[in-house]
Amino acid sequence: MFNFLKKFSTRIQTIQNDLKQIQSTNRSLLATQSSLKNLMIEDYLNNHLKNNPKYNDPKKLNQYEFKAYSQGGEDGIIHEIFRRIGTTNQYFVEFGVGFGLENNSAFLLTLGWQGLWIEGSDKYCKQIKEKFGSVIENRQLTLINNFVDADNIEALFKQASVPQELDLLSIDIDGNDYWIWKAINSYRPRVVIMEYNAVYPPHVSWTIQYNPNHRWDYSNYMGASLLALEKLGTLKGYKLVGCSFTGVNAFFVRDDLVNEHFLAPYTAENHYEPARYFLCEQTAGHPRSFGKFDSP
Question: Using CA atoms, how far apart are residues 211 and 147, in angstroms rounded to an integer?
């Protein structure tokens, strides 16, 4: 009996060692797969963006793309826009920020900007409070846990004491984006970022019907086409100055600030980028996080 138990124990130990080896091998394979994916994406960007004559005009924004906390190259485009037009109060508002580590304004916090995040998900807000506690505590960042609609958006701005002429507004809620921007009339951001639905080509004007209870169901029934946003921007006094190479976000600058800084014509036909969502999956480098920091 003793020999049997000894053999059984030895066998269990062997199996456990084998499992550890398998797990280690799987981790190596996943790391290799991730590295290969990143190399393929980098090669794609080199061939289709960085070395593409279409993007050589210095007024075109895409050559300036880089990614710190943004989904694609939006961090770089934002930086370049404000390099051209300057900043005032360095205040942003963004809603639809997710868990905080992948959006259009987290990088601005590291540059000393101040702002407001509005997020409807209780789960995401809990994660934001954990990751961004230091900048919430020092009031650099205000967080409101609420879903936005056309009726409450300006009241939420007022609640957070948002300046009427903030530097940046970013809207990404996968639904009533068009209608929310349309409802913001008492505030005049200098730059507006709008997610657009790249399923619709640049000659199609389309938006979902307004529904304050809309929640994205992961289908393509969301948001608005780029042409619809271009038309709305024109009505509100903004020019469409570019789109991210991933085909996710459109960038609008207020008419009085455009001057000769950006590439005309300011149309969907000129600035449309098709959906290249696979570029948003790049995972090069360390996983994103956020914590206390210094600005030497």
Answer: 12
If one counts every other C-beta atom within 10 angstroms of the C-beta of residue 129, the result is 14
CB-based contact 272:248 (threshold 8 Å): no
Contact 64, 77 (CB under 8 A): yes
Residue type present at position 280: C
**83 CB-contact burial (10 Å; exposed 0-12 / middle 13-18 / buried 19+):** exposed
For residues 144 and 116, is the Cβ–Cβ distance under 8 A? yes
**Residues of the chain falling short of pLDDT 70:** 1-10, 12, 15, 18, 23-38, 282-286, 295
Pair of tokens at residue 249: 């976000």
Number of helices (H) and strands (E) in the chain: give both, helices first: 10, 7
| Bridge-based pairing state of the strands 91-95 and 238-243 | unpaired
Q: Is 227 exposed, middle or buried (0-12, 13-18, 19+ CB in 10 A)?
A: buried
| 137: Cα separation from own chain's centroid | 24
Locate 151 and state its tokens. Answer: 């009726």
**pLDDT tens profile 155-201:** 999 999 999 999 999 999 989 999 999 999 999 999 999 999 999 99
E-assigned strand segments in 225-282: 238-243, 249-254
**What whole-number distance in Å separates Cα of residue 190 and Cα of residue 93?**
12
Query: By the 8 A CB rule, do 165 and 184 touch?
Result: no
